[in-house]
Design brief:
The chain is an alpha+beta fold. Helices cover 21% and strands 39% of the residues. It has one domain: Rossmann fold (3-Layer(aba) Sandwich), CATH 3.40.50.
Length: 84
């Protein structure tokens, strides 16, 4: 199961470090056996959300759990690697 609770991701862009909100307060649950897809226009935060799920980048706020474990837990990486 995947549980995303109130994640937000903010990037700083350009020389003046302008703040850009890529994902804002996203919450969702994907239960075992469900299929979930991301649809939306360019810039909607789809790729950023996937990077957050894979722990390639860290959220500015909120948390992400896979099988009840935080995505930053090394055991989650092993779990994902075993299934691919």
């Amino acid at each position: 199961m995947i549980k995303i609770e109130g994640i937000s991701k903010e990037f700083k862009e350009g020389l003046r470090a302008k703040k850009v909100m890529a994902v804002e307060d996203l919450s969702l649950d994907v239960h075992k056996g469900e299929v979930f897809g991301f649809l939306g226009p360019n810039g909607a935060g789809k790729s950023t959300t996937i990077k957050l799920l894979l722990n390639l980048i860290r959220p500015t706020s909120g948390r992400i759990l896979i099988n009840g474990m935080n995505v930053s837990d090394k055991e989650v990486r092993r779990l994902i690697d075993e299934r691919s």
